[in-house]
Amino acid sequence: MAPTLFDHGAKPGDLIEIFRGTYEHWAVYIGGNEVVHLIPPSDDSSPFGSLLMLLDSSRVQVRRQKIWEVVGGHRFEINNLLDHKYEPRDRHVIVREACRTVSSAQPYNAVTHNCEHFVTEIRYGKSESRQPGQVVQSRFTQDHVIDMLCVLNLLFLYLRGDQFDF
User: Fold this and answer.
1) Tell me: the pLDDT tens digits for 36-87?
2) What domains can be seen in the chain, in order of their start residue?
3) Closest CA to 13 of 85, 126, 119, 127
4) What pLDDT is stored for residue 34 in this prediction?
5) Is 121 helix (H, G, I), strand (E, B) or coil?
6) Active-site residue identified among 8, 25, 113, 117
7) Distance (Å, whole) CA 48 – CA 25
8) 163 falls in which pLDDT band (50, 70, 90)?
9) Catalytic: which of 8, 37, 113, 117?
10) Which phi and psi angles does 152 have, rounded to 5°?
11) What does the pLDDT read at residue 154?
12) pTM for the full model?
């Protein structure tokens, strides 16, 4: 059963992992049933929309919202994933840093600067993400990934309307 408004158990400074099917979204819990997170660059949750998001670097905004607005109907859990590797900052420092970023524009790239990078930087002072590596390790060899990215880049350029000759 999914946690309810009154029993999610998060403490200020905890990382919240939200399972959205093909990817996980991340937020920092700041107390008062609120989180700070990156607004994804696309609301298109289709596989093709997610693929375009992966290929297109852009800027996003940091938003402060009620946890339930961000989680919606998805499953989520508290996941302070790097506590075994790094010492987390003090909770009040995590909350202060998260709140300082609200309304700021941030770079976004699903591989190099995604929402998991954002929250781990705030909690640990180290920007890390397991998601890009997990996709590569679990589904493809390195050669297949390079081939696929080349083809997808051409497809993206074509769909964007770029003109080029072969």
Assistant:
1) 999 865 555 554 554 455 455 578 899 999 999 999 999 999 999 999 999 9
2) 15-160 (3.90.1720.10)
3) 119
4) 97
5) helix
6) 25
7) 17
8) low
9) 37
10) -65, -35
11) 67
12) 0.71
pLDDT at 143: 46
* DSSP percent split of the chain into helix, strand, coil, nearest 5: 40, 20, 40
Q: Exposure of 162 by Cβ count < 10 A (0-12 exposed, 13-18 middle, 19+ buried)?
A: exposed
Tell me which of 8, 74, 99, 115 is the catalytic residue. Answer: 115
List all residues 6 or more positions away from 137 whose beta carbon is below 8 Å from its beta carbon: none
Residue 25 bears catalytic tag:
yes
Longest dimension (CA), the chain: 59
Strand partners of residue 49? none
Residue 139: per-residue pLDDT: 39
Structure tokens of 13?
A: 């400074």
pLDDT-above-90 percentage for the chain: 49
Task: Record the tokens describing residue 67, joined without a space.
Answer: 């946890």
